[in-house]
Amino acid sequence: MELWPIALFLCVIAVLMTGLPVAFVLAGVALIFATLGSWFGVMDMSFVMLLPNRLYGIMVNPTLMAVPLFVLMGVLLEKSRLAESLLDALASVFGRFRAGMAISVVLVGMLLAASTGIVGATVVTLGVLALPSMRKQHYDMKLATGTIAATGTLGQIIPPSIALVLLGDVLSSTYQQVQLDLGNFSPKTVSVGDLFAGAIVPGLLLVIAYLGYILIRGKGQAEASSNSELVTTKRMSVADITFALAPPLALMVVVLGSILSGLATPTEAAGVGAFGAALLAIWRGSMTLSKWQACAMETLLVTSMVFLILFGASLFSAVFYGLGGEEMVKNTLGQLPGGVIGATLLVMVLIFLLGFILDFIEITFVVVPIVAPVLLMMGLDPIWLGIMIAVNLQTSFLTPPFGFALFYLRGVVPDSVATSDIYKGVTPFIIIQLLLLVAMAVWPSLATWLPSQIYG
């Protein structure tokens, strides 16, 4: 019996390696195994028959309605050339310092992460905008590419991140069910806002660590030349810098502040963010009709992808449970040496490895619902677990040779930049992220203290 869920999982991974669409792979392989399981008498098809109810629940889920709104917010800020203005403004401030452009990239990437939350979009945007200027300033390509790739992955952890919205929704329903199974009929709730609050301190620590490493490496980085094209053509006044920085910062504060203060749900705040981003785009006057259409189309495509994967993942999880996968995972993790520590370590290693071949959406909808109930049953804090998973995936997306962020960056950098330089460049940032994971494992309060202060 236990071989069936293992075979289902391995078969899905194998078919995904062919490059077929994830949603159709999850649904198609699950249906094949459900049919075979029914024939061999190991699968109750009632699990599949309940699928329409589950899909209806997904479509009316108010938390998931935040996804298209946050996507639209990020796309509008990107298409309105706001990222370019931010980079120009910060480069004007830090451009004459050692590694000043790299510092600007990290700060802009932090703001983009808070608006888009999509790793690929941030890496590509920073690569296109910043790398040419860094090459003109004769940056070490290892430092330049490593900074851009690592900064692009901040979208996994800096709120309001789409990854945290999806992860928060999954952990919320899972945690409530675990509490009911434990006999607590007045279960505690975990919201997306809790995850946002929990991610703030680790996210800021990561940004500070990045900046610290860049400043140390900057001692070996030549001063930006006074006749550099960046310095002479993009020097800005205080008024221009304020004009570039204030509006997007105000939007981020309003969106995140309204969620953390309890004045708005994530979906309501996402609506305010999308509306505010549209006003900023109109105010800047850089949007044409074709750009508005492109924003709408990109939002539609990303949202459709997310929900299609969620539909496929729902069918996969139903068949996985029907084949006895939940009981198998529970027994396996419960019998590991080291108890909860051993189980958590194994899950984190598994998620890290799956991050090489699956995006965060698939891992959130497919893997987390399988392993999270067992870990939460063992007493882990759901907020801590969610932040650990987010940082773990962020590290996986940056790790050679399969990291998604590396593929995105390789697609926009010139052929003259060696792939080995990109791999060497991201290595120090991977070490920083691993140290953050260790720090959160030793001091869980790094992720749980702020939510307890805000909502405690």
Summarize the structure.
The chain is mostly helical and 456 residues long.
Q: How does this model look, in words?
A:
The protein is mostly helical. The chain contains 22 helices and no strands. It has helices spanning 3-16, 22-39, 46-49, 51-59, 66-79, 82-94, 100-115, 119-136, 141-152, 162-181, 192-217, 229-233, 238-260, 266-284, 289-322, 325-334, 339-354, 360-377, 382-398, 404-410, 419-442, 445-455. Helix 16 crosses helix 18. The chain is globular and about 70 Å long. The protein starts with a helix and ends with a helix. Mean pLDDT is 83; it is low at 222-233.
Task: Set down the secondary structure blueprint.
Blueprint: H1 3-16, H2 22-39, H3 46-49, H4 51-59, H5 66-79, H6 82-94, H7 100-115, H8 119-136, H9 141-152, H10 162-181, H11 192-217, H12 229-233, H13 238-260, H14 266-284, H15 289-322, H16 325-334, H17 339-354, H18 360-377, H19 382-398, H20 404-410, H21 419-442, H22 445-455
Helix pairs in contact: 1-2, 2-15, 4-15, 5-14, 5-15, 6-7, 6-13, 7-8, 7-9, 7-11, 8-9, 8-20, 9-20, 9-21, 10-11, 10-18, 10-19, 11-19, 11-21, 11-22, 13-14, 15-18, 16-18, 17-18, 17-19, 19-21
Q: What is the averaged pLDDT score?
A: 83
Q: Assess the beta-strand content as a share of residues.
A: under 5%
The N- and C-terminal alpha carbons lie at a distance of 44 Å
Radius of gyration: 22 Å
**Quaternary state of the chains:** single chain
Number of helices: 22
Shape: globular
Reading the helices and strands in chain order gives HHHHHHHHHHHHHHHHHHHHHH
Low-confidence stretches: 222-233
Which percent range fits the helix content?
A: over 70%
Number of beta strands: 0
Q: Structural class, from helix and strand content?
A: mainly alpha
